[in-house]
Amino acid sequence: MLGSNSNEYGHHKKESYLIVVNVCIYECSYVKRILQKNMNDVNSFITKSKFIKVEQVNL
Question: What is the CA angle 6-11-17, rounded to 5?
């Protein structure tokens, strides 16, 4: 009886651990996506400003 109870406890512990891992993975991918979006915005801004500078030089 005691063995089955401890096994059940271990199973619940494992499940909660998996949930925590999944949440961490989700959070990390979410943060990474935001960072990538910001990097894309920054890169496009830099290329636009370069383009504008080039246009100004041509004028």
Answer: 125
Domain regions of the chain by residue span? 1-59
Q: How far apart are the first and last CA of the chain?
A: 86
DSSP string, 3-52: HHHHHHHHHHHHHHHHHHHHHHHHHHHHHHHHHHHHHHHHHHHHHHHHHH
Indicate if the pLDDT at residue 33 is higher than 80: yes
From residue 37, how far is each of 19, 30, 40, 42, 43 by CA, in Å? Answer: 27, 11, 5, 9, 10
User: Whole-model pTM above 0.90?
Assistant: no
Q: Residue 50: CB partners within 8 Å, gap ≥ 6? A: none
